[in-house]
Amino acid sequence: MKMNRGVEALAKNWEDWSDILANSSESSGEYLEAIDGTKDAMADLLDINKDFISEGFIKDHLAEIGEAAQGSEAAIDGLKAALAEDIITRIMIENGIDEAQQAEILANLASLQAAIPDIEVGASLETGAFLEQAQALIDACGLTADQANALFDSIGFEATFATEPQEV
Question: Which of 73, 84, 130, 142 would staple 154 via disulfide (CB 3.0–4.6 Å)?
Fold first, then answer.
């Protein structure tokens, strides 16, 4: 339902938004409205909080967003994968993770993305290789619960991470 709402919003507005994003000043009101509208539609389309969708991501993926506006499943899947990489890359940079470790983390993310189709809907993952890989990714990046939830939402895995008090 939410994804359909995102596709509908893009289909209805993308021609105008894409023109504004490509040709208007980034400081103009219409540009800011187009970015905000695109973020809202993308948040629905990809089932993620719009705060995790960067302006740079939108600008870098105008063509794919245009295809998604036409209902292309391949474009939507590609945007999900690209968004996951964008989110984790921004978090790694913010957390000062070096380039060598970034490559390892991105490989781990790709492995997690590949494992998701093999997980049954409604499965509870309390142990196993997938959970261990997910925890390693969370630890390596120093993800907060909100960041972990956003990252896993972006790869199509609806997980709920909670904070756990730790002694320091």
Answer: 84
